[in-house]
Amino acid sequence: MITVLAGGVGAARLLAGLMRVVPPHDITAIVNVGDDLVLHGLAISPDLDTVTYTLANAIDADRGWGLADETWNAMAMLEQLGGERWFNLGDRDLGTHLYRTERLSSGADLSTVTTEIARAWGLDLGLLPATNDPLRTFVTLPDENDTEVSFQRYFVERQHNVRVSAVRFDGAATAKPAPGVLDALDDCDTIIIAPSNPIVSIGPVLAVPGIRDVVERRHDRTVAVSPIVAGAAIKGPADRLMKELGHDPSVVGVARMYRSLASTLVIDGADRDLAPAVEAEGVQCIVTDTIMRGPAEAAALVRATLKEFR
Amino acid sequence: MITVLAGGVGAARLLAGLMRVVPPHDITAIVNVGDDLVLHGLAISPDLDTVTYTLANAIDADRGWGLADETWNAMAMLEQLGGERWFNLGDRDLGTHLYRTERLSSGADLSTVTTEIARAWGLDLGLLPATNDPLRTFVTLPDENDTEVSFQRYFVERQHNVRVSAVRFDGAATAKPAPGVLDALDDCDTIIIAPSNPIVSIGPVLAVPGIRDVVERRHDRTVAVSPIVAGAAIKGPADRLMKELGHDPSVVGVARMYRSLASTLVIDGADRDLAPAVEAEGVQCIVTDTIMRGPAEAAALVRATLKEFR
User: Fold this and answer.
1) CATH number at residue B120
2) For residue range A230-259, what is the model confidence (pLDDT) as tens digits?
3) The predicted structure's pLDDT at residue A235
4) Cβ–Cβ gap B77/A71 under 8 Å
5) Considering only CB atoms, which chain A residues are within 8 Å of B41?
6) Angstrom distance (rounded) from CA B243 to CA A65
7) What three-state secondary structure class fits B42?
């Protein structure tokens, strides 16, 4: 049994590899919901959808988000009407948000709806939001008079092309882990922290009271995959955010952030020379190819990780 | 200045004719919102949209509702997920609902949003919801244990193919006319009651406190166009509903329903023989072609009405 702490793209790719190595019933992904938003009245869960669409082979691989074979007619009309269209929603993707919104409004919780969507796509792994409660990531922008904006206003609207001076997980203090989350962390053989952004993807998951505690308790059974390769994020602003928030944007910095959580860090061959520095932080090191161009590379990464992790 | 009490399709066609006869700035339509619904989290105003799309030449004429050149990809995804899809929403049409929902959620009222949408389509007439407050039509179904369902559950989901024993306008008692509605009725030269369903299209408009009073006061300046021709509705369940709720489903029955509101009823040539019976109800009669296959016939109907109405 393997439980994965997951953000969006990087986690989705890792999970696609894991699905080639381990039966889906043995996998549980606990997914970030700090990026979630309500827009145009619709409940949108970008990381859950990225994981679902990726594992269902339905993701648009070029774009990196949303569904393949997508059309954009609703957005075109919204634009014609002068509506807000900084957050692009494809027509097929809208069907997912309509479904989720309708189910939530009729009283279902997010974990139930998430499972329904996963099953409709034929996915048999456990797919859980970190929490069913509203937990929302906000970032403070020092170059905009310390305005605090929601994650997607930062990530999508500003294309994460601005400085960040603080990150806050609104609602975290009172959020409860979704049903099954703590058990999945407690009962598994291995916890994998996916190569997602440590601050704004894994951070919100760990901010749900109870989750960090159980991962720390299971430190010896937890392995993280570095999202930083050669000092840069594979995708997104992890390196920049780490630096701006006082972390070393390197595998050593990742090791420092995760050392209370994970006994082992998987780093890319490009960072081989930093393995001693990682181990000097008290974190064992696995060196392998971590760049996942597709499920085959992801499966190789997972195999190497599970083989060498003790 | 002409003010029209309007439902959906029949009113939209009449208005399209009126736009050919009178400058748009001289026209105000006061539109039924009893059919409105929130579905999948989206605020949907079917009659307002039917009027807007029709006047913008954007309606799908064959279907009779929604936009031309429509795609259905969101609905297909919703169906794949097992979602509720009894109420069809095209992708372009969804853009309208996204816009309306976003604007309402940011505090705009329905009449403001309705005007914004009309202007975006290049429409210069006054287009007002009867009220900005939630007024919702419910019908009681005697063959389903007197269950009360929302209008669209009756009209669309059951395709109005069931008996109705009662109609109720939820929220009507406390609804206020939208800004401009009473003035438009007070200050115009002529009020036209469009050939819409008297019970579930015009009924909810008149149920907003204040609207019936001003129309009754302006009885001499009000003319109704019968939605019933030769004992049947041109479209929809008006005849059936009238019968089930104790009205004569004929132009005479329409005259009885409207005689306190309108001094004149326009009836189709097919009902020429009933003109004396209509006038016996104290309602003057204009006999002309009332079936509007397109804007040209609608314009002819409007011209005949305005010419003969005293």
Assistant:
1) 3.40.50.10680
2) 999 988 999 999 999 999 999 999 999 999
3) 85
4) no
5) 41-43, 98, 101-102, 105
6) 55
7) strand
Is A154 found in the same domain as A282?
no
Place of tokens 């928030």: A245
Q: Do residue A125 and residue A144 come from a single domain?
A: no
Q: What is the pLDDT of residues B81-116, one digit of tens each?
A: 999 889 999 999 999 999 999 999 999 999 999 999
Residue B161 lies in a domain: no
B-chain residues within 8 Å CB-CB of A93?
77
Give, as one character, the DSSP assignment of residue A5: E
Q: Is the pLDDT of residue A64 over 90?
A: no
Alpha helices in chain B (DSSP H): 9-21, 46-55, 73-80, 91-105, 110-120, 151-152, 181-187, 203-206, 211-217, 238-244, 251-258, 275-280, 295-308
Q: What percent of chain B has pLDDT over 70?
A: 100
Same domain, A78 and A185: yes
Q: How far is A93 from chain B (nearest CA, A)?
A: 7
Structural domain count, chain B: 1
Name the burial class of residue A53, with classes exposed (0-12), middle (13-18) and buried (19+) by CB atoms within 10 angstroms of its CB. buried
Q: Mean pLDDT lowest for which of A128-137, B61-70, B183-192?
A: B61-70
pTM: 0.94
Question: Which of A53, A84, A94 would best serve as a mutation to test chain B binding (most B beta carbons within 10 A)?
Answer: A94
Query: Which positions ≥6 away from A32 have C-beta within 8 Å?
Result: A6, A7, A8, A47, A130, A196, A201, A202, A204, A205
Beta carbons of B204 and B137 less than 8 angstroms apart = yes
* Shared-domain flag, residues A20 and A95: yes
CB of A26 closer than 8 Å to CB of A213: no
Same domain, A112 and A159: no
Residues of B in contact with A67 (CB under 8 A): 77
Task: Tell me the Cα Rg of chain B.
Answer: 18
Domain assignment of residue B168, yes or no: no
Residue with tokens 């930062």: A154
Question: Does A48 share its domain with A79?
Answer: yes
Both tokens assigned to A35: 């990026």
Complete edge-to-edge strand list for the sheet that includes strand B136-141: B147-150, B136-141, B166-170
Tens of pLDDT along A50-63? 999 999 999 998 88
CA distance B226 to B236: 14
Angle between helix axes A9-21 and A295-308 (nearest 10 degrees) is 70
In chain A, what percentage of residues exceed pLDDT 90? Answer: 96
Three-state DSSP class for residue B19: helix
Range of the domain at A258: 2-134+173-308
- What does the alpha-carbon distance between residue A171 and residue A168 come to, in Å, rounded to a whole number? 9
Inter-chain CB proximity A71 and B76 less than 8 Å: no
| Tokens, residue A200 | 């704004």
Distance CA B192, CA B11 (A): 10
